[in-house]
Amino acid sequence: MDYFSLAFLTAVLQIIAIDILLGGDNAVVIALACRKLPESQRNKGIAWGVVGAIGLRIVMIFFALQLLALPFLKIVGALLLLWIGVKLLQPEDDSHDNIEGATTLAGAIKTIVIADAVMSLDNVIAVAGAAHGNMGLVVFGILVSIPIIVWGSKFVLKLMDRFPVVITIGAGLLGWIAGGMFVTDEFLKDHLADAPSWLHYVTAVVGAVAVVLVGKLLAARQAPAEPAPLVDLAKKD
């Protein structure tokens, strides 16, 4: 991939968007893990925790890129991305109650790295799909997104709260990546050798639309029903 091409820039923007959408919880985890540290050690805990978490994530994505070269695994990865996109549109719940603050610098770093590893499976799969096998692209995209996640997370979260369409667009992006990933699986390459060049875009659009429609439908079903109006008993007398 040409590092100055439109395809490269598009992939970088996709990776940054994925990191922002799926990595918003990282800032919360970092804050919780470092909240019991002395004031003088908090910045160190945040810095080294981020370095460790990002390093581990790059290693995980490297292995994911290798695995996606095997037959059927891109199909599985695409299905997982579709599920992640649908899940992104569901009502949020607080999943950080089990993140305990550490009293030592090493403990805080360990907590951040472990929590990030557990929480970043969706991020790893999505970034691997957007990178198209280019590890340099993965590293560049993540490095660019680090300051956005760590220092700009509050702004991004407020933006998402104020404009819910940003979440919908992000979910659609995951569906788009999933649709494109599905038809590039090693198992399907021979079967789709004579397929038209635009098939990739069709499946990408289908994936994006499917995620948004299914996600919105499930979210509507989970929305709490409005309470029935109270009957004024006094009027009945």
Architecture blueprint of SSEs:
Layout lengths: L5 H17 L1 H11 L4 H29 L5 H16 L16 H15 L1 H11 L3 H28 L2 H18 L3 H4 L9 H24 L10 H4 L1
Quick description:
The chain contains 11 helices and no strands.
Model description:
- The chain is an all-alpha fold and 237 residues long.
- It has one domain.
- Helices cover 75% and strands 0% of the residues.
- It contains eleven helices and no strands.
- The protein has helices at residues 6-22, 24-34, 39-67, 73-88, 105-119, 121-131, 135-162, 165-182, 186-189, 199-222, 233-236.
- α1 packs across α7 (135-162) and α3 (39-67) packs across α7.
Strand proportion, as a percent range, falls in: under 5%
**Topology as H/E string?**
HHHHHHHHHHH
Structural class comes to mainly alpha
Q: How many structural domains can be distinguished in the coordinates?
A: 1
User: What share of residues is helical?
Assistant: over 70%
Output mean pLDDT: 76
Contiguous helical run count:
11
Shape: globular
> Count the strands?
0
- N-end to C-end Cα span: 79 Å
Q: Spans with pLDDT under 50 lasting ≥5 residues?
A: none
Radius of gyration, whole Å: 21 Å
Strand count, sense and barrel status of the largest sheet are: none
Feature tags:
237 residues, mainly alpha, globular
